[in-house]
Amino acid sequence: MMTINEIKKSILNSNTKKTIVFPEGREEKIVEVANKMQEEGLANIVLLFDSEDEIASNIHKDIETRVIKGNVDKEMLETILEIRKGRLEEAEAIELVQKRNYYGSLMMQLDRADGMVCGLNYTTADTLRPALQIIKTAPDYSIASSVFIMTKGDQNFLFTDCALNVDPNPKHLSDIAFMAAEFAKQLNVKTVETVMLSYSTAGSGAGPTVDKVAKAVDRLKGMENESMIFDGEMQFDSAFVKSVRDKKYPNCKLTKEIPDVFVFPDLNAGNIGYKIAQRLGGYEAAGPFILGLNKPVNDLSRGATVEDIYQTAIVTVFQSLCKGGK
Q1: Which residues, in sequence order, are CB contacts of 74 under 8 Å at separation 6+?
Q2: What does the record give as EC number (predicted)?
Q3: Are strands 145-152 and 155-160 parallel, antiparallel or unpaired?
Q4: Average confidence score pLDDT of the chain
Q5: Other CB atoms closer than 10 Å to residue 280's CB: what's the count?
Q6: What 8-state DSSP symbol labels residue 72?
């Protein structure tokens, strides 16, 4: 599985330069990352502002800056009125197209940008709401989900969904697993092994959550192919340690020492799990990266560091290349 540095190299080797929009252009951390991305040739950058006096003097000369407050883009207005037909009055639409989070999503919908990074000041809901309303989920999925790239030494794997879906039903859980497996393939994993986590291993426990995971596993059987293998339900020790797995689940289809993707049954487990791995286990958690949208939109923690933002921007460029070809 590719590391963040390897993802960066693949972007630099691409023949296509993508455009990434940052709605929070007035933030110093965003400017620092935008300048670095532009200088390194990783993407074309667009920064959004409410007023001219927010534009910092140290912004790279090749970065495009846009002031959107008081400027109503006619094409964007027509687009959002069409998308939200019957649910949005023109006066409301005029307000929305002057909001940076909506403007960024509309740029992507109109092919003026290929990806968006947002969230230093916006909540996750405020980042994703316009994306879900305007860009929407990809045709094969009814939901978006999130994934973390977990790294420690030479170990590299994915945790999902640790940031978005509170209590996914079996269909949604199987979609979450499949989206993460697809992302692992994009990260150059030839045969992706995905484990569905639970407090039960192969029927050792019982309860509604176990049933939910088991139903998701059954649904995934029809989605498997030579390059994607799913199995479960499984406790974390069985999933993570092959010797334990061989003892507890001798008929398991997973053969790798450590699977490529770990799918948590709900947001409680996923959010707690990645933070335990990060804080107690010493794993670096890059993300969350949003999966399942027609174009990539990634949400920043409001406490994100410059390095966090930089990594998120790199993965956003990579996702846009995967969507639109290299």
Answers
A1: none
A2: 2.3.1.8
A3: antiparallel
A4: 95
A5: 8
A6: -
Q: What is the pTM of this model?
A: 0.92
List the domains of the chain with CATH numbers.
4-136+294-323 (3.40.50.10950), 145-284 (3.40.50.10750)
Note the pLDDT tens digit of each residue in 28-86: 999 999 999 999 999 999 999 999 999 999 999 999 999 999 989 999 999 999 999 98
CB neighbour list of residue 5: distance below 8 Å, 6 or more residues apart: none
The whole-angstrom separation of Cα 64 and Cα 69 is 16
Q: Fill in the amino acid letter for 110.
A: L
CA distance 111 to 88: 23
Q: Name the phi and psi angles at 60, rounded to 5.
A: -50, 140
Four-point Cα dihedral 242, 5, 158, 15, nearest 10: -120
Q: CA 133 to CA 125: how far, in whole Å?
A: 12
CA distance 187 to 198: 26
Pairing mode, if any, of strands 228-234 and 284-291? unpaired
Q: Beta strands 155-160 and 297-299: pairing type?
A: unpaired
Q: Write out pLDDT tens, residues 240-294.
A: 999 999 999 999 999 999 999 999 999 999 999 999 999 999 999 998 999 999 9
